[in-house]
Every structure is written in structure tokens, then in C-alpha cells.
Design goal:
Blueprint lengths: L17 E6 L2 H20 L4 H18 L4 H17 L9 H20 L6 H4 L2 H10 L11 H7 L3 H31 L3 E6 L3 E5 L8 E6 L5 E7 L3 E8 L8 E2 L4 E8 L1
Antiparallel strand pairs: 1-4, 2-8, 3-6, 4-8, 5-6, 6-7
């Protein structure tokens, strides 16, 4: 009988690699921002702390601000329809799992129908809320949502956690069809591209994209234990990636002139 301890059970799991994303058009920027804010809102809404409720409301108000600037619902509907048509083309191709394809198409159609059915004025209850409008107005002032500034907000934050959660979830349900559609579209965008190993000579890497099939999103994958991070800039036709070295929060990151290995994903 082996008397040595099983050290494999004592080892920490390998840290997941870090992924950096750069959107290359305005629609993708909007989708990524809404995804980020929705995840943040749902995360904080699950905590009973009043401070988490503050963070959740802040995220919700930022979602309202973004959706007020353009027709996010129309953009998502168009993209859902495009993805359904793309998947339809695979129905006649060999080597495709028909059950998996049917499931993907059914999910996209359901998301499209759910978003279409809520109508173009789906945000009105949130935008017309005097309570949320007051919080939004005071949020523009540093520290403007203190208890003495908004006593009604303070009252709401001090209500039982389950009541706050129920009310916040009712607000969140109004934007859920939009955010669920965005989440599915971003999942498809990320999944439909393949990663490949690349080398940034002297810490710089440049990309030229096919004009007939422009890239929407660039993803850079690095190991979690590296001191490097990418700085990206570009558009649908080209992108430049510079790798910077993180020192600490008091020093400005510096460009590294060594060759850097990384994983690149270009999502069309």
C-alpha cells in the first residue's frame, strides 16, 4: 500500500488564461458594453447587501444611458435574423450535427421573437420612473446619492433584501430579452472563430483584414502568470497590437521590445 500522500489533490488548479477583447465597430462596442453591464447588474443583484444593490442600480442606469443613444433593439434583431439565415445554409451541408443545428436555430428564433414582441417602447417604464430618474440625476454628482441627498433611495436600500431583489428583478426583466439576445450573439461570434498562435516581433503585431469579410472582434489570449497585456487599436480593415509590461499601479506601463507569443482570435 502506498503511504505517500496524494499531492495531486493538494495542488491548486491551473489558472485560466486571460482574454483581452477589442471591438472593431460601433455595434460590437455597444454589445460588449451592454454584456458587461448586464453581467455586473445580475451579479450584484444576487447579494443581499445594500451596497451591492447600489452597484446593481448603477449598472442598470448605465444600460439605460447606452440604449437611449441608438436603436440597440433594432441592431440585435437584425443580427439575430442574419445568424438564423447563416445557420439555415448549414442544413444542406454534410458533417453537420442536425440536432445541434436545430437547437441553435430554435434558440435564436425564440430570442428574436421574444425581443420583437416587447415592442420598441420596452424601456419606457424604466425611463419614466421618477425614482430611477432621481437616482440617475444625482449619480452625475460625485457622492450625489448619499443618504441626505436621496432619502427615498436610502429608504429603498434599507428595505428587506428580498423586497429589493424582487423589485430590481422586475426592472431587469424589461431589458432581459435585449441582453439575452446580445449574450447569444456574442457567444456565436466568439465560438465561430478559431484561435491561432502568433508572434509579436519586438512586442508589436499588425493585422490586415479581408475587405469582403471584415473582422468585428479581436481576442488576445495570454497566460495568467504573465506581466504583459495588449494595447489594441484599429477598425474593420486593420488592427495594431502593442504589448506593454505591467510594473505596478504607481508606474506607467512600458512597451516591451521582446518577441511575444500569444493566441489570436479574429471574429467575423
Amino acid at each position: 500500500m502506498n503511504s505517500y500522500p496524494d499531492i495531486s489533490s493538494q495542488l491548486e488548479p491551473e489558472a485560466a488564461p486571460v482574454v483581452y477583447e477589442q471591438p472593431l465597430n460601433e455595434r460590437m462596442r455597444t454589445f460588449l458594453r451592454l454584456e458587461f453591464l448586464y453581467i455586473q447588474a445580475t451579479y450584484h443583484s444576487e447579494s443581499p447587501s445594500p451596497w451591492s444593490s447600489r452597484a446593481a442600480v448603477s449598472s442598470l442606469l448605465e444600460i439605460l444611458a447606452i440604449t437611449a443613444r441608438g436603436d440597440s433593439r433594432g441592431d440585435v434583431l437584425k443580427e439575430l435574423e442574419r445568424q438564423v439565415n447563416v445557420l439555415k445554409e448549414y442544413q444542406s451541408k454534410t458533417g453537420v450535427d442536425p440536432a445541434r443545428l436545430k437547437s441553435l436555430m430554435s434558440n435564436l428564433v425564440k430570442l428574436r421573437n421574444d425581443l420583437s414582441s416587447i415592442g420598441g417602447n420596452y424601456m419606457a417604464p424604466l425611463r419614466d420612473s421618477e425614482f430611477l430618474s432621481a437616482v440617475k440625476h444625482r449619480s452625475a454628482i460625485p457622492g450625489g446619492t448619499c443618504d441626505f441627498d436621496l432619502p427615498d433611495y436610502s429608504y429603498w436600500l434599507n428595505r428587506p433584501a428580498e423586497i429589493r431583489a424582487a423589485e430590481f428583478n422586475s426592472w431587469l426583466s424589461l431589458i432581459r430579452p435585449l441582453c439575452d439576445g446580445i449574450a447569444e450573439l456574442l457567444w456565436l461570434t466568439r465560438q465561430n472563430a478559431k484561435r491561432k498562435s502568433e508572434l509579436a516581433i519586438g512586442g508589436i503585431f499588425q493585422l490586415q483584414f479581408d475587405r469582403e469579410n471584415p473582422c468585428q472582434l479581436v481576442r488576445i489570449t495570454l497566460p495568467s502568470d504573465t506581466d504583459l497585456f495588449p494595447e489594441m487599436s484599429g477598425n474593420q480593415h486593420r488592427c495594431t497590437i502593442r504589448f506593454l509590461n505591467w510594473l505596478d499601479a504607481t508606474a506607467r506601463p512600458s512597451h516591451i521590445e521582446l518577441d511575444v507569443h500569444f493566441l489570436l482570435t479574429c471574429c467575423a
